[in-house]
Design a protein that fits this description.
single chain; alpha/beta; Phosphatidylinositol Transfer Protein Sec14p; two-stranded parallel sheet; globular; disordered N terminus; PI_Transfer_CRAL-TRIO; microsome; CRAL/TRIO_N_dom
Length: about 375
């Protein structure tokens, strides 16, 4: 477009050594050159990328809990209950009469202030319901292979990067960038489906959920889910087949039961007619509050900074998925963030009820003005 503009104006190909000659040709040519420079300045420059971003563009902000007196009382009661609860052993899985085992460090660090509040909100501030739901999730995480209990967990059932790597060879799920509110973005690309339905697809989703949680910056405890139904390039010969209803129901159950209040925003784009019919089928299984957070066929650019958004969605990033580059890097970044999280947990006394804001900070000491014990 810019070259065409130059040709129409008759300026020809001009290099820096001929600049004085250009100005000698008169004001008309000078004005044309100025206009051309303006056009060139406005052409967006794309940045090539094959790996995730480690941090959001926007400033980090501390969380604002804003609890009423009654809500604070319920939170205090839930924290007190679990301070006693963690001294006991719990089942290693959900089978009848399963052996019991003490909570591991990875399970204790999961019991944060924000975690308790997420479950209280999801339980509509009903204390007993929140207690039950947290207990159920702790046991589910053991059963499904999310946490590893040394010398107890079946290594074949443990969800690891190696186990689910084949599911992501085409880049059907991506953690790339952060939205305007600093939520890490998890992309689901239905058109890049490379495997048939089954347990490993569900394990893959859970693995990526755990990973995107590790990418959350201080002050943010929810994610942005961006779902694109556009077909992959024809030469990739991939499927755009929707997951089976049973698989979709299982995924929805896991999301709503064991990751409550984690979805901060859901964006859907390029929805085909068959997709609309699919949503009608799964719609009854989606929690009404979750449904309120979903937005259909609005530009992703309205919600994600251009610098961290792919050109396909009107962003300034030229992203290319290379499994051999992306997959190890994505996991290395997540592990580095998790290591910091655990180091801070130990610095603060390995107590439950710590704030995720403090646990995610790169700190030399305690955070001023933050009640880490709250």
């Amino acid at each position: 477009m810019v070259l065409g503009f130059l040709k129409r104006k008759g300026t020809g190909n001009v290099d820096s050594s001929d600049s004085s000659q250009v100005f000698d040709q008169g004001s008309q040519t000078s004005n044309a050159t100025t206009a051309t420079s303006t056009v060139l300045e406005k052409v967006p420059k794309l940045t090539k990328r094959k790996t995730p971003f480690e941090n959001p563009i926007n400033p980090i902000k501390p969380p604002e809990f804003n609890l009423t007196a009654e809500q604070q009382k319920l939170y205090d009661q839930l924290l007190e209950y679990y301070q006693d609860y963690i001294t006991k052993e719990i089942p290693i899985n959900d089978s009848h009469n399963a052996p019991k085992h003490p909570l591991t460090e990875d399970e204790l660090v999961w019991l944060t202030k924000e975690c308790f509040l997420r479950y209280l909100r999801a339980s509509k501030w009903k204390l007993e319901t929140a207690k039950t739901r947290i207990h159920d999730t702790l046991v589910w995480r053991r059963t499904f292979g999310v946490v590893d209990i040394p010398n107890v967990t079946d290594s074949k059932k443990l969800i690891t990067a190696d186990l689910v790597a084949p599911e992501n060879e085409t880049g059907k799920q991506l953690i790339v960038g952060y939205d305007n509110d600093n939520r890490p973005c998890l992309y689901l690309r239905n058109g890049y489906q490379n495997t048939s339905g089954g347990l490993r697809q569900v394990q893959h989703l859970v693995f990526m959920l755990e990973r995107v949680i590790q990418y959350m910056p201080p002050g943010q405890d929810s994610l942005a889910l961006l779902i694109d139904f556009k077909a992959a390039p024809a030469e990739m010969k991939l499927s755009s087949k929707f997951p089976s209803l049973s698989t979709s129901q299982q995924c929805l159950h896991i999301l709503q039961s064991h990751y409550p209040e984690r979805l901060g925003r859901g964006l859907f784009t390029n929805i085909p007619l068959i997709g609309q019919a699919f949503f009608k089928l799964v719609g009854p299984f989606i929690d009404p509050y979750t449904r309120l957070k979903t937005i259909y066929d609005q530009p992703f650019a309205n919600f994600v900074p251009a610098e961290q958004l792919d050109k396909e969605f009107q962003g300034l990033m030229d992203f290319e998925y290379d499994h051999e580059v992306y997959w190890p890097t994505m996991n290395e970044i997540a592990e580095k963030k998790h290591k910091l999280y655990m180091e801070n947990f130990r610095k603060y006394g390995s107590r439950i009820g710590l704030s995720e804001y403090d646990l995610r900070q790169e700190l030399k000491g305690a955070v001023e003005g933050t009640d880490v014990a709250a």
